[in-house]
Amino acid sequence: MGRFHRHDDGTVHEHDHEHGEHGHGHSHDHDHHHTHDEDLVGDHSNYATGTERISVLERIFDENDRAAAANRAALDAAGVRAVNLMSSPGAGKTTLLAKTLAALRDKTRVGIVEGDVETAIDADRLRGFGAQISLLNTSDGFGGECHLDAPMVAHALTRLDLAKLDLVIVENVGNLVCPAEFDVGAHRRAMVASVTEGEDKPLKYPVMFRNVEAIVVNKTDLLPYLDFDMGLFLANVAAINPHAKVLLTSAKTGDGVAEWVDWLLNTPETNAV
User: In whole angstroms, what is the distance from residue 255 CA to residue 107 CA?
Assistant: First the structure.
């Protein structure tokens, strides 16, 4: 029983992760017995729920998409643009957002949907910049999910006065897998990728990198201290998503933040993704 995944056309299927797939396959031409972790925990042959699970997941995605459309309609009616901002944990989303709010203060009315599994730490870091903040802990009645979905964001939007906003940024839960698969009702998607994560992340997490319009490459101030190959990273990005806007930033020093803010301000109010 593998991991379920939804394609852009809405179809859902299950990946069976077997030897030889995803670049880690190998064969043995001898009789020595080898014990692997998957030999201990990977045998799901007694499960017969594949079709049932796909059916349930399709219903979940359908419900989510209806909620996302309703979110987008509410944002459109208020004339508000919305961006779903994703990343792995520790990539620097919140620091980038603090710099963003400082740059937009007294210029653009911003609301933040702050998604975390627990705590108000990140939401508290963003207070004091004049933005409306709606904290959304997924552990609070949402099952502790590792991503935000459209019904969660609908709940968070009720705590924002959309009539007094121009832009809403959804800071999704730090995770490079699930957040990319759930439309939350934003008009566009962006992600933050830190140079500390390595050049291979576009290849290892293609769904995330493929489903965004902008990729912010953060922590560039650390490049002199890392063996990070920017050329290889950009080539990997181009192989997965050649149309993405790539922005090089250091949220710590502020380098590149102006270009990121310009992308945000030029986000169209429609063109749902």
Answer: 20
Distance CA 200, CA 175 (A): 16
Percent of the chain at pLDDT exceeding 90 = 71
What φ, ψ does residue 120 adopt, rounded to 5°? -110, 20
Distance between CA atoms of residues 71 and 77, nearest Å: 10
Q: What is d(CA 210, CA 200) in angstroms, rounded to the nearest whole number? A: 14
Lowest mean pLDDT among 26-40, 91-105, 148-162, 250-264: 26-40
C-beta separation of 180 from 208 below 8 A: yes
Which amino acid makes up residue 177? V
Q: What angle do CA 186, 99, 189 make, to 5 degrees?
A: 20
Burial of 57 from C-beta contacts in 10 A (0-12 / 13-18 / 19+) = middle
Question: Given this model, what pLDDT does residue 54 score?
Answer: 62
- Write down the mean pLDDT value for the chain: 85
| pLDDT of 48 over the 90 cut | no
For residues 208-226, give the mean pLDDT: 98
Q: Which conformational region is residue 79 in: left (phi greater than 0), alpha (psi within -120 to 50 degrees), or beta?
A: left
DSSP string of 40-102, one letter each residue: HH---TT---HHHHHHHHHHHHHHHHHHHHHHHHHHHHTT-EEEEEEE-TTSSHHHHHHHHHH
Strand order from edge to edge, sheet including 167-171? 132-137, 110-116, 167-171, 81-87, 188-194, 214-218, 245-248
Sequence letter at residue 144: G
Which one is predicted more confidently, 10 or 198?
198
